[in-house]
Predict the structure.
Amino acid sequence: MMNNNTCPCGSARNYSDCCGKIHSGREAAQDAEALMRARYSAFALQNIDFIYNTFHPTTRRFQNKKEIATWAQACKWIHLEIIRSTVNTVEFKAHYLDEEGQPHIHHEKSTFKMLNKQWFYVDGKIFA
């Protein structure tokens, strides 16, 4: 795992001082955007357990770890662009290359919910 490399989330901070704190459980995400950034970094680093565990408990049972892992591993994650964020939503563009090296953008408006002082991903609206 990364230590002093720049965090994949685009913060320009070291991974260990940014999303690494959230991935390790040393700190909770302070807001929806922080969780969004940590989830993006988890995709880039193929931290499938973190992605799965940050789905809201009411939606987690609909997720498939193997499918999440397949997508995370098939893509080369280039960068995260935050378009706008509110208390409970984050609109973002995740830039990546597919298995053939073709560029793509995953554009989504995600909804987050706090439960027991911890943020969780609920769902997202994908833009074509």
About this structure: The chain has a mean pLDDT of 95. The helical segments are 19-24, 32-45, 48-53, 57-60, 65-74. The longest strand covers residues 103-115. The first helix runs from residue 19 to 24.
